[in-house]
């Protein structure tokens, strides 16, 4: 019998209707996890879950806004009701609103912080409260960004939010390690997704400035994510893993 790393594990992944989040869900399900796939877009979430189930995975879609803490409590409760426990929570949902610093509007700032930081914080609160009750603890993972490490034009608020969640991962070590819960983050660099490929020049532009000669794929990011929530990484805690082909080592921007 083939061993599956996440057999009998239950995972929540937010912002997973497409792109990085979807690939993380797909790979978790392929490795035996029961996956609760969240996206704010109900149709996108449903279609994504169907694709994973058609591949032989076990995935349930739950639409909702992670910027609403009450919804996040409901999401965790639903997962436990459906599958009996929660082992993995991945706060992947986030929004990017580009703007010149001097023109950034308060409503845009509030939205970015509510979803990126609030959604991460309150998913962790709800998930960790459940994991605390269980034997075995759990793993929590955040999706940050290389712009939490390196300045990027027109992304001041977004970069601030991503640096903030990396510090949250570090701070929560002292709060959650005693319950056998580890918290880490990944910081993807330029990645080929449905959204980024809407720009016909995206891949070629970034390929010139990334040392490995190409942007990341969603598989690159998902592979790192699965490692950090696996049993192999239980002694890794409060860390951020940058996946960017070496871009932050040299940091030129094509824009």
Can you list the strand order of the major beta sheet?
3-2-1-4-5-6-9
CATH homology superfamily: NAD(P)-binding Rossmann-like Domain
Q: Level of helix content?
A: 40-55%
Count of DSSP helices?
Answer: 9
Secondary structure class reads alpha/beta
Fraction of residues in β-strands = 15-25%
Reading off the top of the CATH hierarchy, the class is best stated as Alpha Beta
> What name is given to the CATH topology?
Rossmann fold
Give the oligomeric state of the chains in this entry, treating copies of one chain as homo and distinct chains as hetero: single chain
- When the domains are counted, the total is 1
CATH architecture: 3-Layer(aba) Sandwich
Instruction: Estimate the global geometry from the Cα principal axes.
Output: globular
Biggest sheet, in brief? 7 strands, parallel
Instruction: Report the C-alpha radius of gyration, rounded.
Output: 17 Å
Mean pLDDT: 95
Number of strands: 9
State the low-pLDDT regions, or none.
none
Instruction: Give the ordered list of helices and strands.
Output: EHEHEHEHEHHEEHEHEH
